[in-house]
Amino acid sequence: MSTGFSRNEITVLNRVRTRFLDGTNAGGGYWKDDEELALYDDTFAQRIGWKWEAVLRELAARAWQPRSTRVLDFGCGTGVASRRVLGAFRSIREVAFTDVSAAAIHFATRRMREEFPAIPAVPFDKTAPLPPGTMLVVSHVLNELPAKAHAQLITLAEQAEEILWVEAGTHADSRSLIAVREALRSKFTVIAPCPHAHACGILAPENAAHWCHFFTPFPSHAAQDARWSQLGRELGIDLRALPYSFLVLQKNAALFPEASRILGTPIEKKGHFELLTCAAEGVREVIAQKRDVPDLFRALRKRELAPAYQLRVEAGKVTGVNKSGISD
Ligand SMILES: C[S@@+](CC[C@H](N)C(=O)[O-])C[C@H]1O[C@@H](n2cnc3c(N)ncnc32)[C@H](O)[C@@H]1O
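Above: the input record for the complex with S-adenosylmethionine. Below: its predicted structure, written as tokens.
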């Protein structure tokens, strides 16, 4: 980003955003023209890209690598998700795009060619089985899918070697993604975010108010870019908050050792944090006191959490902690 947005650009971006808020995005295929796609790619898709970078950083920290050589970007929009995946994994040699919008597929293909000229875009044949060695990439699509398209996507997903899926960090979208996890869990190893392979603990009735989501910091280069503050001001939203939900599955992979994960937004109180932890035993609220676990307390303050911890919890309080499974 450099110079400010024009009046016309703000009008277009407002239109795009309103569509996502008022439900007129249902069914997809709404992209009007290339200008709209380009503005989306430069703004909202950048924020989605930062969420993908957070997921890909976590996978790198865990030394996880895909076996796939091919990506299918489902509901590709401008293709930001597959571009981030290509940036992270050199083993991917081709990408197929699919979207109900032909304009989106054209745009995504062109943008990928600009950034990754050596990677070909190959056609997606929805009548054929998914080719072996395909990674399914899905980003911010679930809340647009009618039931039939949702069921078709699950059937497609079952055929993938790996699945990398990122959604908005809202209660509704996280819970839709949890339903996907539960539908696919028996056919895949759950790589992330779950620190266990059992049924999702968020689904327990006492956790109805909770959802599985994480935050990544607003990048400092964007914080210094006047266009982001102009956009936030004009649209009346805080663009710096970057909540996301995600799911990474792989066929026949080694199980990540069972551990605990801290979900959502830890709440700081005097001398302690209130946390929501996820582990094989379930999702539960616990307290982390500065005097018991000073390193964890500091990490919570700085919002620099590891993806997984070995936590010792006694009477609702964390009394011991170690990072788990991280190769840094
Ligand atoms: C919010 S956009 C996200 C685009 C892109 N994945 C991203 O993360 O920026 C949702 C995209 O899903 C597409 N879409 C909606 N329903 C679809 C369906 N049934 N099949 C394929 N694509 C669909 C829309 O056309 C749109 O491009």
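Notes for the reader.
The chain is about 35% helix and 25% strand.
The chain has two domains: 7-250, 261-323.
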